[in-house]
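Give me structure tokens for this 493-residue protein.
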Amino acid sequence: MQRERAAHLLTAIAGRKALVVGDVILDRFVYGRTDRISREAPVPILSETRRSVMLGGAGNLARNIASLGGEAMLVSVAGDDAEGAEAASLARDACGDAALLVTEAGRATPAKIRYVAQNQQMFCVDRDPRTPVSGPSAEAVFKAAARRLSEAGVLILSDYGRGLLTPQLTARLIAAAREAGVPVSVDPRGKGYERYDGAAVIKPNADELAAETGLPVRDDGEAEAALRALQARLPQTRALLVTRGAAGMTLLTDDGRLHHQRSRPRSVFDVSGAGDTALAALSLAMAAGVAMTDAMALADLAAGVAVGKAGTAVVSPDELIEDATGGAEAPDWRILERGDAARLSARWRSEGLRIGFTNGCFDILHPGHLSVLRHAASVCDRLVVGLNADASVARLKGPQRPVNPAASRAVMLASLDMVDRVVVFDEDTPEDLIRALNPHVLVKGADYAADDLPGAAFIKSNGGEVVLAPLVKGLSTTALVERMKRDASGDLP
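Here you go.
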């Protein structure tokens, strides 16, 4: 996927809300080295160096939704044990008040312990409740999910086979979502996908699809045959998507069309949780109304980044953009409309990044501009440049300006490494744009008075600051234009 498309999709999904219902698993990792064999049995001894704990299963899906810039509302069940209390605490850390883990007395909280030596997983201990949740717990989960449906852009059913998503509860949740007009995405488990019928998309991996259909899924032709066989059994399901590892993904829509997404060759470090990462990206794109083919491409990109990390890792939008391929049009992904830029700015702020803003006509880019832009980038983590539209420049500079149209000026700015995003505005001042972006710092050249700058009072009222950048003497676009006029007329100084 090209960076331009990835950036626009990531901006589209920013702030989208996903309701996640499924099995939360407490994931523990024990890391160490194996340098010797036990005297008691012919097994390696793991010399422990560190441990970590995180949410797995539906919890990892929620973590990935948040890391991609969305908002996750998580509903699940935990036991009344120490693992359940720890899982509930981690869920609150990940989702805040939007997390609800129904406590069921006498039930074991699903948990895994993975032992890792020299970056290779040696052994996994799995604690599975092995029984469905109780009727009261299932009812509590349904009521909690139903209350949140009105806020959600998508409902995700994350079935890890730990007893929460019974056929009855699954059918009720899908029916409630369809009535509310909320699309449903499903990460299935076990056999009998009829219980998921009515979802917008069901996403098995190749092994799961083969087990469900009894058909091999080793190449494109076999993947298509298996998908069509499954589609014939699910008349109310809009799309089926199979993830195929290095072969990419294949999508079959309800109109019978087949689409392949080819993955780039990658070094795979750990596949743990990559399916959750893919489903998070796919589902947020669905919530944003993105076409399924583009949603699949974003999911493939996200999964590709995830497999390069250890454990049930999450990925960020910046990592996806960095991993996406460039191209001749690559700078264009940094040029945004105001609304998209405002959503992106809000996401950056939520991630604790310091947002900087500067603006100007930038009609003929010269070293004076570059000096101000470099200074602006040095006082923030992300720099947004507001660019006067052509009509705005003409009103400010005269009818002969601009020399270069806004589209060209925007691409020039977007090509600079110190500029993170460019937004064209039509007004004479950037006041309204500044209010939409709510940056932490406003930067302008030292030839301005800080208190007189449009937007300065707004930024200061929100705890931000105004910074004046040193100027390079003798450089201005107006002076350059006048010199070009003299050169053209032969009136050289």
